[in-house]
Amino acid sequence: MKPHYFESEEYKNRLQKLEEISSLGIEPYPHCFKPTHSAEQIAHTYQDQTIGDSEAALNGTTPHVKLAGRLVLFRAMGTNAFAHLRDGHSKIQIMFNKEHTHVTDLKDDGDIKPIKFIEKKIDLGDMVGVEGHLFRTHKGEITLFVKQVTLLCKSLLPLPEKHSGLTDKQVRYRKRWLDLISHDDVYETFVMRSKMMYVLRQFMAEHRFMEVETPILQHIYGGAEARPFTSHINAISQDVFLRISLEIPLKKLLVGGMERVFEIGKVFRNEGIDRTHNPEFTMIEAYAAYWDYNDMMVFVEKLIEKIALALYGTTKITYVHGENGEELSLNFASPWKRMTMIESIAEYAGYDVNALLDQDIRRILQDQTEVDPAFLAKSTRGGLIALLFDEFVSNKLIHPHHITDHPIETTPLCKPHRDPVWRKQGFVERFESFFLGRELCNSYTELNDPIIQRSLLEEQANKLEGGDEEAHPMDEEFLEAICQGMPPAAGIGIGLDRLAMLFTKASSIRDVIYFPIMRPTE
To answer: Which domains does the chain have, with CATH numbers?
Structure first.
């Protein structure tokens, strides 16, 4: 079945021009072109300099440059034709002249003259290389007097209309290349994401963390409560899972003597899609031997502080939040507010957990939320406390918070609390960081007791056998590694797409992922 655009007049017209260009002996898709400058460099270098006029450019006494980019505007004006050339996301005005502009490989004695070739055979969206001399127009605009133009890529489909073309968000996500061309703010979002990643890696190196890579395809998944994606390796007739976390292999490296490690990579969870979730996402996980979760809280604060200063020059960032478009200023300077989960429930939900029986918490959740009553009936006290937090507190954590000391039911890989009272009540040394009602990261003092670890993983395996699709399977290889001695350590996991949402002020995770998962089109 042929694509729909094969029948469009625009496609047919451009295809005809392509054939005509080739018949003139011009290669419409040459192998390379070497620009000497970019439009951005020229604007920066010559913004305050006297360059000369078009006569000086014609005579070759002004700066000589070669540029390459996409033609995004064209207008003929007598002996000259003006256009805008876009490279990356900067633009520069260029001028073609009837007498002095030549087209690469176009014969001077042919039937079509260079200026007519440019007007008739080159379309908006085509990529060209131009060479010539700079000048300033009477209005002061830096312009390139083009002496030589080379067609670099003949486009067969038009770009969207500037003002009315690409407005549908779903189309923009599916066709990100057009979104980047059409919307400067989208381009800047991904530039900001790239800068964030650069600063992140710098920070990790400064703190002596070594970057490693571990397998995406795993025989046993673990490290988070999530439903995995499955695949199959034909060569060994083996079913495998796409990793749901980076945690287990990194902890094995701690056992192997790598005291500070981190990995940035794709993680896959076969779950729902919404404003803050995509089934494929990018994470950083880091582990530091001899640290605990208190050390990691300070580390996270310093990391976010460092990125904010690098990207914005300040730790105070303004956001538009909520349905009413309220403008908020968040300060990411350390230290951040710290509260235990129980304290946060008292502060933001008004419930004193220590004064409530399990049936009281179930009644509150059943009356005020849509949590499945059957799920509530089988939930332990720790699970009920976590549900209270999720339902009544998390979306109220607008300014940066660390929420510490979670029920042991929330993770089988965390060390029980060092305080004997908290330990007896079933709490572990875990914290999550929040801002604007979103979870930013998850961290804990890592469990390195192989006896307790086996017991907790056995509980998870029993849940899995009982039908809980998000529980962990048993991982004997990991337990063997822990038996051979893992140092006390702290670990952290940060969703980098959510971190990019923070620093680009995006309201949806799809805005910071180049190609988010989308429903198939018909």
So the answer is: 4-159 (2.40.50.140), 181-349+393-512 (3.30.930.10)
